[in-house]
Amino acid sequence: MLATKRVTLIIGGGIAAYKCLDLIRQLRAAGASVTPVLTRAATQFVTPMSVAALAGSQVYQDLFDLKDEAEMGHIQLSRASDLIVVAPATADLMAKMVGGHADDLASTLLLATDKPVLIAPAMNVRMWDHPATRRNLAQLRADGVQVIGPNSGDMACGEFGPGRMSEPAEIVAAIAAHTTPGPLTGKRVLVTSGPTHEPIDPVRYIANRSSGAQGTAIARALRALGAEVVFVTGPATVPPPEGVTLQRIETAREMLDACLAALPVDAAVMAAAVADWRIASDFTQKIKKGPQGIPELQLSENPDILATISTHTQRPRLVVGFAAETENVIAHATAKRARKGCDWIVANDVSPATGIMGGSENAVHLITETGTEDWPRLPKAEVATRLAARIAEALT
Ligand code: CTP
């Protein structure tokens, strides 16, 4: 997959550095050669010896090591690479990149290189959410740096949220996509997928039958064409695709926040089955049976994420919505396109008899400004491939 690709891997000083040992192994298994550069802090988490043994290469650490400067200085390190990967990219390394610092070998190499740079951030969730890191991330993207992750989940610091470094297989997939350009290389696409769960009380929730299969297939197809994909998913039953920036959420409001945080993007594909309503009251304890009788649940309306993105000041160039209907599919979907302000609507009939919701096939109609196309009933992966190709056409 990465035959003859030369990757210079800068390992930053964070606990996720331990994953780099596996990353090096997987990169070499995919055919790449790996030249490791360790920051001083990284040596607190992994030893140069284990990195060198797995990379089958000398480890570069010191800007002022004359032997290295003679044999392989920072300029030479850049020249001898097809791609520079920073993993884990700590908050500090990201800040240094933005500031153009050059006070150690890693930062000097990053300033001196004209090769593509891919970073895999990893840090505590509060550091990730800090306005300084948000600013730095936006600047790095504007500077052309590719970003993979971070994922959400349990963190070594005991907290939960975005900040976990992407898994080695995801980073390898991102490198592969980056080094084999496709029609969507350099384009960033937001995809929502799966159902949302709206809590009733701490143990119960409102949900729907979406499996996330169609959204996942779309994200995978866009990735395969080279797009950088931000994948915001509710609790789906199918596993998420690899090589995407994964944001797991539960409620519609969390999905909206994750989508807004992903902007700017070139295109947005909103395949999620978002719950239209949530429970108005905030039950902090389990609702009990009792003499008060059957509880009456008040609903309040959830934000419309598709409509919000379609009218946002940072509106993506192409906004694609879905319409899950059970009757008058095309009429309802055409009205929905106008009402939500999106460019295209992918409409499907989700009546139970069709077996589409939760099934492996889909029969869709693509509604655009020029009219309606009826696609045949196809595997969801095939619908995704066709849609991704259309998106690539529209963006290029
Ligand atoms: N959608 C959204 N936010 C919501 C509801 C829906 O972003 N709160 C998006 C879906 O992801 C989909 C599109 O809007 O792309 C249409 O979803 P659908 O459930 O078909 O339509 P609704 O807006 O819920 O309208 P209705 O329930 O009246 O059919």
Could you explain how this protein is built, in words?
There is one protein chain. The protein is α/β, with parallel strands linked by helices. It has two domains: 1-180, Flavin prenyltransferase-like (Rossmann fold); 182-396, Rossmann fold. The chain is 34% helix and 23% strand. It is built from 14 helices and 21 strands. The chain has helices at residues 19-29, 48-55, 66-72, 74-79, 91-99, 105-112, 125-129, 131-142, 168-179, 213-224, 252-262, 305-310, 329-340, 380-395; strands spanning 6-11, 33-38, 83-89, 117-121, 146-147, 151-154, 160-164, 188-193, 198-199, 205-206, 228-233, 245-248, 267-270, 277-279, 299-301, 318-325, 344-349, 361-362, 364-368, 371-374, 378-379. The strands form six sheets. Strands 12-11-8-13-16-17-19-20 form an eight-stranded mixed sheet, with helices on both faces. A hairpin with a 5-residue loop joins strand 6 and strand 7. Helix 1 packs parallel to helix 2 (48-55) and helix 5 (91-99) packs across helix 8. The longest helix is centred in the last third of the chain and has 16 residues, at 380-395. The chain is globular. The mean pLDDT is 93. Bound molecules: cytidine-5'-triphosphate.
- Ligand catalogue: cytidine-5'-triphosphate
> Briefly, what CATH class of the largest domain?
Alpha Beta
- Overall SS class: alpha/beta
Kindly report how far apart the N and C termini lie: 26 Å
Mean pLDDT across all amino acids: 93
CATH fold-level topology of the largest domain: Rossmann fold
What shape does the CA trace take? globular
CATH superfamily of the largest domain: CoaB-like
Runs with pLDDT <50, length 5+?
A: none
Provide the helix percentage: 25-40%
